[in-house]
Each structure stands twice: as C-alpha cells, then as structure tokens.
Amino acid sequence: MEKQTTIQATGVASSLVETIQGLGFKLQTLNLSFNDDENVAAVA
Fold it and tell me: Is the pTM above the cut of 0.70?
C-alpha cells in the first residue's frame, strides 16, 4: 500500500506543478498585453 500512496502523491504534486506553471504563463501573457511597448521592451 505504501508504494501506491507514494505514486498517487507524486501524481498529484506533478499536476499541481503543471497547473501553477500554466497559471504563471497566463499571468505573464496578461502582464505583457497590459504593459505598453516601453515596458515590454524593458522586460525583453
């Protein structure tokens, strides 16, 4: 049983990471679209 629980926990952790990364990417995209050209150029 222990092994199975570990696998399940790892799966949950990795999908959490994927979700967080996806959110981070969406936020970055939003920030870029709200910023004016000067700010985008400064970031790039």
Answer: no
Do the beta carbons of residue 43 and residue 35 sit within 8 Å? yes
Domain ranges of the chain: 2-43
Report d(CA 41, CA 44) in Å as an integer: 5
Q: Dihedrals φ, ψ of 22, to 5°?
A: -60, -45
pLDDT tens, residue by residue, 6-39: 878 888 889 989 998 988 888 888 777 766 666 5
What are the start-end ranges of the H helices in 1-44?
A: 2-34, 37-43
pLDDT at 18: 92
Contact predicate 32/43, CB 8 Å: yes
